[in-house]
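Lab notebook, bench 4. Continuing the backlog of folding jobs that were queued last week. Each job is logged with the same field layout so the records can be merged later without manual cleanup. Today's entry covers RagB/SusD family nutrient uptake outer membrane protein, a 499-residue chain. Filled in by technician R.K.

JOB TYPE: sequence-to-structure
TARGET: RagB/SusD family nutrient uptake outer membrane protein
LENGTH: 499
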Amino acid sequence: MKKIFILLSIIVFGLAACEDELNQVPISEMSADGFFQDEKGFEQAINGTYEALSTYPERQFHLSDVRSDNIYGVGSMGVRSHEPVNNFAFTLAVNEYMTEAWDNNFKGIMRANTVLENLSADLVPDEAMRNRLEGEAKFLRALFYFDLIRYFGPVPLVDRLVSPNEALEIPRSPVADIYTLIISDLQDAAQKLPSSYSGINIGRATSYAAKGLLARVHLTRSGPVLHPDGPCLGVNEYSQALSLLNEVIAGPYSMLTDYAATFDLFNENNSDIVFDIQFASGGLGVGASYPGELAGSAFWKAAGYPYAIGLETKDVSYDLINSYGENDSRLDFNVQIGYIDPTNGQYVEDPVCTKFSRIDPETWGADRFDFGINFPVLRFADVLLMKAECILQGASGTQTEVDKIVSDVRARGGLSAVSNVTMDDLLEERRKEFLGEGLRWHDLVRTGKVLDVMNAWIQVEDESGQMRSSIDYKHIIYPIPQSQIDVKKGLYEQNEGYE
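JOB STATUS: finished
OUTPUT FIELD FOLLOWS
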């Protein structure tokens, strides 16, 4: 396993004072004096920009999986932060997950802007290295901004370093304007990034990763407008997405024959991974915490994990479990239906997402923040299924192509081939394939299915009646964190419906 993250404590960014400001405004300035002197300094800086992705896995799980019909997150240990997300509360402006999503994405944007503003031929004479650094910074900035608009809609558009005082004058920009920057960044990244890496650089963004992410952007932009400030613009860019996806498909990727091997700690950066977030255990401060978030305390205690997790299990939806069918090997890998409580020897029927928890105890890190398993942002299976989506949405292609793609994905799970696949069939296959990878809510939003699917699911799954009985377009995006609303009265207007 090759890991590219490094300790922020050795990145002399001068960030301490700056990130205090980041808790108040989205962007703050950074002193680069004495730091950006040579290629090594820029490499450290770009590694620090990758580090801003360290909370990305938990965010996608809580704000996409938990929000969707994949997880029934009604708890029994008192109100936890994920429950209002699961229950579609309108009081989420003070929720910790809103603050995390805003602050850490803008932290990454600020770091990317710093690299881009300081990068020059004088400081990095090697053109290939300079292009790579620029491509990485733009890829990451695009990823951070794409995350922001999918969750919050309009956000401040900042493509350069600004002071805290300047930031207090920057309003939210329309989603369409943010997309202009995202698309430009990803197009530049696709041109400037290498197609692959070797040695310790394996895991960095490639030109294929930029093309794959850009395809996802085009798909999302093309979705029907259900919310006036949502991420879907109703444009028809399925052909653009398909062209990019075909370029990735022609690259060095393939689906592994064994689904579980895709997520094997000892088989990371395999041919199904187009881009993932690199983590390393060993007490270095660069490990992951998301496996604990997905499975929860009771599961890890039953597994003999020696450290306290302190997190409640978010149950996998029985509707999803039943959709797998008995012969789908992905169910056995992705979900553990129950476990034995070591305190009393009793069986507990708690359906747990264990996709990233099948880790040999010998590899457990120093604590629950020190798992070494990478998190996939874009997989080859996703690229293939997005191609099928483009064709179903009217891009060039045939039903036979769609059927073959879906059948190939199913075959890896031990299932038979299918024909005449519809968009609903495709979404259900994606749901089973990508459980725990934070794609489900985004899939439902961009295909325009979110309100119908979620309202039907709530009626079936929420027997306890703890969730909102139905949702409407206002729930498609989240509220701006209250901490940001309070920075300067009138700078941001809260998203419709939220308190």
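OBSERVATION: Residues 1-30 have pLDDT under 50 and may be disordered.
SIGNED: R.K.
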